[in-house]
Amino acid sequence: MEDSVNTRVLQQIKENEIVAFAKELIKIPSFKTEETPVAHMLADFFRPRGYQVELQEVEPGRLQAIATLRGTGGGKSLMFNGHTDINSIPRGSKRDPSIPCVEGDRLYGQGAENMKGGVASMIMAAEAIRQSGVGLKGDLVVACVVGETQGGEGSHFLMQSGLRTDMSVQPEPTGVGNIATVHAGIVHMAIHTYGVTGHISVQEKTVNAVAKMSKVIDALQHVEFTYTPREDLPAMPRLNVGSVIGGRGESYILIEPPYIPDYCTILVDVHFVPGQTVDTIVQDIRRTLDPLTARDPQLKYEVEIPPPDYFKGRRRLVMEPLDVPKNEYIIQAVSRSHQEVTGQPTRAIGAILPFSYSAGDATWLWQAGIPCLEYGPGGGFNESIEGDDNFYVSISEMVTCAKVLALTALDVCNLDSG
Description:
Blueprint: H1 2-10, H2 15-27, H3 36-46, E1 52-59, E2 62-69, E3 78-83, E4 101-103, E5 106-108, H4 112-132, E6 140-145, H5 153-160, E7 167-170, E8 178-183, E9 185-194, H6 209-220, E10 238-247, E11 263-272, H7 278-295, E12 300-304, E13 322-323, H8 329-342, E14 348-351, H9 362-367, E15 372-374, E16 392-394, H10 395-413
Parallel strand pairs: 3-6, 3-7, 7-15, 8-14
Antiparallel strand pairs: 1-2, 2-6, 4-5, 5-16, 8-13, 9-11, 9-12, 10-11
Helix pairs in contact: 2-4, 4-10, 6-7, 8-10
């Protein structure tokens, strides 16, 4: 009986439908803080199909769509959780990123790899169950959240709202066959340097905040962190200076180069391992920078966490490292489903490198008591290529992911809730 039910559901998953839906998602730009149009599109998709839909207002005017396929009762609940915000577009794009295109097994477009391909897979998995007419005892929640790339604003809000399920899967771009249960933590900070402004004609009487910041940036490349190494995250911790802005005044006036800049800010990202805290990270950074001020009394700096709110899309929240025990039921359920769909065992469970060097929304669900993992279609997310050649998702992996998620839902949501 189980085989026939699984077959009925899997027959509803069609490559052309997944690709078409992913294309519609890609066409709508949804950079962090700008996801509301996608939320409306998703709500309009879910409502006529019988899902219970909630549009949550995470911030004024910023919406995320949470759809629930109600079960008949008595079963465990499962959440598919995927983010609708996308990464920024780098220079050198060879294609119009807003126009999705298919080349072989690759679907290209803005956010295809992180993670509109995964969002399409999880939605089509839920649709396969609904269209098959196979009932679930437990609820299946399809959470299309905002702001994962800025620390998980949407999932954090979702957990604060009180929604809970028994288990969850995030179809992040791990590559199907890989189940990520471990990832690093992330904290962002601003570091400011201060100077004394004046016209270039009296340059000798000024202090250039940008020049002082150059010393800070150089020193940050040599921070020695206090931590216990993790064999499964061997390149951690890591620090990156991601942005630099300097000018005259606290609004960073950029159009007065005859005047010496008296204010400079860098935005710093630190990816860290379990055992490290924000306090220890800041202590390590100060231990590196304080000798600079001892040698140069004119160098004055300040660390600010989180970065100022005038930086649009700033990362306000700290994502803690994730380490979910491998014996959790959801991990075994996804592993079994993958085996059934592909005929092959999962390649890896735990830290998936280099994917696990970053962090994701699973941290918020795990902290809220929801066993979870990351399993989704791979693409260019973990590639470093100039331009947009890494903005793609594997079509075949989207299909496989949708099938695995559908079977996982049949497994979990038909478990007795007692």
